Amino acid sequence: MDDPASAEQVQTTEPSHAPKRGLLGALFWPLRLLKRMYAWVVGWADTKFGAPALVVLAFAEASFFPIPPDPLLIALCLGKRKRSLWFGLACTVASVLGGILGWYIGQALFHSVVDVIHSVGWGPSWFGTVAAAKELSADQVAALPRAGEVIFYPDGYFYIVQQKFEQNALLAYFSAALSPIPYKVFTIAGGVFQVSLPLLVAGSIAGRGLRFMSLALLIHLFGDKVRPIIEKYFEWITIGLCVLLVLFFVVLRYVM
User: Fold this and answer.
1) Helix, strand or coil for residue 150?
2) Is residue 154 part of a domain?
3) Ranges of residues in the chain whose predicted pLDDT is under 70
4) Which of 53, 115, 174, 211 keeps 20 to 30 A from 75, CA to CA?
């Protein structure tokens, strides 16, 4: 028999150990904001639209939406453990299809979304800044990757991603699909730089499948043990994911 839906409990539970005052409270404020966003996302799990919302969220996150589908996937799997693998499969397929949309956005619509990227504050992190080119020679500046009038500077994600594509495009797609880094940067950049779409599909199926199906399988097998950990330590799990994100880009920039 399926477990009772637990989204409402996740939505309303506040960890007793979370700092509330002073400097630590200020530092944890963004995490509390993240948890409110998390609560909004998992709130869909307590409705009849939970599964459709998961598909839409997974599709959108792979191409333009900032919130990953993992929280909603977790909530749905906890609520209906016997359907966990189905939820994981649906999430994987929708995310891969969203990645394909991201690739086409990069190939055919990139110049239409440049202003949107800047308007949401992603411009400097995605495209880099002119200051990063000050130590480059004129020939090196001329050789920087670009798309029309948009130049991708060395301190931006697109420049790093383009370098990874040149080294091993399949591995780059797989790593982005598996890890907590912004997958949409890779899918859109793949279209911008005309990287093989079949490689995106193959890397995405492998990476997204491993990520979402493993999560669904773990909850299917150990749901009762996983639930209290997620509910109690969400802030610390978020910190861990952020640290992994930073470390991944350090490795991406200086090691790989």
Assistant:
1) strand
2) yes
3) 1-46, 226-227, 230-256
4) 174
Q: 3-state DSSP call for residue 82?
A: helix
Rounded CA gap, 144 and 139, in Å? 9
- The pLDDT, as a whole number, for residue 212 is 94
**C-beta of residue 153 within 8 angstroms of C-beta of residue 129:** yes
Residues in the chain: 256
Q: Which domain holds residue 18?
A: 7-254
In whole angstroms, what is the distance from residue 27 CA to residue 44 CA? 28
Is the pTM for the entire model greater than 0.85? no
What pLDDT was estimated at residue 253? 53
Model confidence over 140-183: pLDDT tens digits? Answer: 888 898 888 888 998 888 998 998 899 999 999 998 898 777 78
Residue 197 belongs to some domain of the structure: yes
Least Cα distance to 92 among 220, 208, 210 occurs for: 208
> What are the phi and psi torsion angles at 25 (to 5°)?
-65, -40
* Tokens describing residue 117: 């990227």
The owner of tokens 């700092």 is 19
Domains in the chain: how many in total? 1
DSSP code of residue 2: P
Cα 219 to chain center, whole Å?
20
CA distances to 32, 90, 196, 227 from 103, in Å: 33, 20, 10, 35
CA–CA separation, 172 vs 160, rounded Å? 10
Tell me if 178 sits within 8 A of 205, measured CB to CB: no
Q: Report yes or no on 148 lying in a domain.
A: yes
Question: Taking a C-beta distance cutoff of 8 angstroms, is the pair 177, 70 a contact?
Answer: no
Tell me, what's the pLDDT at 75? Answer: 81
1 occurs within a structural domain: no
**Which positions ≥6 away from 123 have C-beta within 8 Å?**
117
